[in-house]
UniProtKB/TrEMBL annotation:
Membrane topology designation: Single-pass membrane protein
Residues the entry annotates as binding heme: 466
Taxon lineage: Eukaryota, Viridiplantae, Streptophyta, Embryophyta, Tracheophyta
PANTHER family the record matches: CYTOCHROME P450 734A1, CYTOCHROME P450 FAMILY MEMBER
Gene name as annotated: gb26264
GO terms of biological process kind: brassinosteroid homeostasis; brassinosteroid metabolic process
Gene3D superfamilies with a match to the protein in the record: Cytochrome P450
Name of the protein in question: Uncharacterized protein
Assigned GO CC terms: membrane
Keyword rRNA-binding listed: no
Subcellular locations according to the entry: Membrane
TM region positions: 6-27, 48-65
Record-linked CDD domains: CYP734
Keyword set, alphabetical order: Heme, Iron, Membrane, Metal-binding, Monooxygenase, Oxidoreductase, Transmembrane, Transmembrane helix
Annotated GO MF terms: heme binding; iron ion binding; monooxygenase activity; oxidoreductase activity, acting on paired donors, with incorporation or reduction of molecular oxygen
Length: 535
């Protein structure tokens, strides 16, 4: 009798689980498909369990098989970078439904709908949760927080990114760029006066330095050691990210996973020590303001306010990881694409150089006031962010059933906002949408597009817009200005134009660029100190 009951209970449980699975993996997706079809929204057919991930991967792999054809006059890279989006948009129009496994994802490129999602109805949408591997890297900081916790953290950290604070970084970051340029010059001098550099690698040194100073300020040296470990961890994660995602794989004690856990532990340990040391210094001085305005100082200061703040040491550790992750590769990608575009378009390189030489003091690192006057360089950076936005897309998730543009979007639906597609849309930006034409930004961002509804959103939109935007643009302007003062550059014959997405938009085969230091100009201007002139 007992066994009979047990068997019957087991059968009932199995039947329940099977029914639940069928509901989640089959019936619900079919109902959602029918629901959207009633509004005229269609897309590739849902397939059991996998959704349309297989077709998506096949489209992306096929698109990345060949680089863009030479000569590189057009920047119509969307079909390569977001191949699945480009392919299905042609069939189903600008709003369509795709499936990430059993999760529905609505692709939305209409600017008015994007405004609803990110501005007017933003309360109905959450940032979506990243891939677990990415989450481990990005930390549980500002990027992934939600609700009140996010709002409080954002308020605490915002002062670190005020221009008055950031301008203090200029001489330090400038020095890092000058040191980098000196190394290139040394390498060039050892050969024929020219040197081939993979800029996508080198720019990471500059952006790592800037983010380390923003995060750790007075504890720069200790912070640098921590972020070195974080770089190693990032390399592991990028490699893992390239491979097919197997649920649970990251918990297996493989050699790579074990090394990555060890690194993570070490990073945490070092950060905790660093925070403790800074905290002690503050306690000794008995004044909280001794923390300084770097991210670490602001967080420690907030954590000392026991009444309104609930920031723990663990939160600070996670936030440091977040900022390193969010701030390093994004900005180095912007620098990489800007350099590649200026190498492809020498007429704009020359215009930008002339402006830099006219505005900046030839012997010093450009000041904040001088950077503000570099209008052409500002236009070039904007045009680069339009054509090659480092974050090519973002995703939101409906927190509840919500109406959007006259269509009911069921709770749990994800919304894919293809930033690059919005920037490349000829209806919004004109027939030359895929051409490099910085002049379109001559009268400011608001007047750059042909259509008043157009969106320029490389840093996102609304309350969750990038907190590091000012830092990124300042760093990029400073770096490109210093390089323009010292070098002329062109694409290497080894360069293959192949933008592709691996978390961010990056050059699939690197970005080899040939730099030549121009002796005539160098005599006139740049940041050369006397001992360098003779080398
Ligand atoms: C060219 C460089 C950069 C680009 C293109 C970029 C892009 C973006 C975008 C598109 C978002 C919004 C994502 C969304 O709405 O889903 C974002 C958010 C964020 N970015 Fe950046 N970013 C850059 C540089 C930086 C830097 C230098 C830092 C930090 C030092 C940073 C830290 C963050 C953080 C913390 C968030 C989350 C903000 C929040 O949710 O409150 N970013 N970024």
């Amino acid at each position: 009798m007992g066994w009979g009951w047990t068997a019957a209970a087991a059968v009932a449980v199995a039947a329940y689980v099977a029914a639940k699975l069928m509901e989640v993996l089959w019936w619900r997706p079919r109902r959602v498909e029918e629901h959207f079809a009633r509004y005229g929204i269609r897309g590739p057919r849902y397939r059991f369990f996998v959704g349309c991930v297989r077709e998506m991967v096949a489209l992306m792999v096929a698109a990345s098989a060949n680089p863009m054809p030479r000569p590189y006059r057009s920047h119509n890279v969307l079909p390569r970078v977001l191949a699945f989006y480009h392919h299905w948009r042609k069939i189903y129009g600008s709003t369509f439904l795709i499936w990430f496994g059993p999760t529905p994802r609505l692709a939305v490129a209409d600017p008015d709908l994007i405004r609803e999602i990110m501005l007017s109805r933003a309360d109905h949408f959450d940032r979506y949760e990243s891939h677990p591997m990415v989450r481990q890297l990005e930390g549980e900081g500002l990027v992934s927080l939600r609700g009140d916790k996010w709002a409080h953290r954002r308020k605490v950290l915002t002062p670190a990114f005020h221009m008055d604070n950031l301008k203090l970084l200029l001489p330090f970051v400038g020095k890092t760029v000058v040191d980098m340029a000196d190394k290139w010059r040394g390498m060039a001098a050892a050969t024929s006066g020219e040197v081939e550099i993979d800029v996508s690698e080198w720019f990471q040194v500059v952006t790592e330095d800037a983010i380390t100073r923003t995060a750790f300020g007075q504890s720069y040296e200790d912070g640098k050691a921590v972020f070195k470990l974080q770089t190693q961890l990032m390399a592991f994660a990028s490699e893992a990210f390239r491979k097919v995602f197997i649920p649970g794989y990251r918990f297996l004690p493989t050699r790579k996973n074990t090394s990555s856990w060890k690194l993570d532990k070490e990073i945490r340990k070092n950060l905790v020590t660093l925070i403790g040391r800074r905290q002690e210094a503050v306690d000794d001085e008995k004044k909280v303001d001794g923390c300084g305005k770097d991210l670490l100082g602001l967080m420690i200061k907030a954590s000392n306010d026991k009444v309104s703040s609930h920031i723990t040491v663990n939160d600070i550790v996670e936030e440091c990881k977040t900022f390193f992750f969010a701030g390093k590769q994004t900005t180095s990608n912007l620098l990489t694409w800007t350099t590649v575009l200026l190498a492809m378009h020498p007429e704009w390189q020359e215009r930008a150089r002339k402006e830099v030489l006219d505005v900046c003091d030839p012997h010093d690192i450009p000041t904040r006031e001088q950077l503000a006057k570099l209008k052409t360089l500002g236009m070039i950076l904007n045009e680069t962010l339009r054509l090659y936005p480092p974050a090519v897309a973002t995703v939101r998730r409906a927190k509840s059933d919500v109406e959007l543009g006259g269509c009911l979007v069921p709770r749990g639906t994800e919304l894919l906002i293809p930033i690059m597609a919005v920037h490349h849309d000829a209806r919004l930006w004109g027939a030359d949408a895929t051409q490099f034409n910085p002049a379109r930004f001559a009268d400011g961002v608001a007047r750059a597009a042909k259509h008043p509804a157009a969106l320029f959103i490389p840093f996102g939109l609304g309350a969750r817009m990038c907190i590091g935007q000012n830092l990124a643009l300042m760093e990029a302007k400073l770096t490109v200005a210093i390089i323009l003062q010292r070098f002329e550059f062109r694409l290497s014959p080894n360069y293959l134009h192949a933008p592709t997405v691996l978390m961010l938009l990056h050059p699939q085969y690197g970005a080899p660029v040939i730099f030549r230091s121009d002796p005539i100009r160098l005599k006139l201007c740049p940041l050369l100190r006397p001992h360098e002139q003779s080398s």
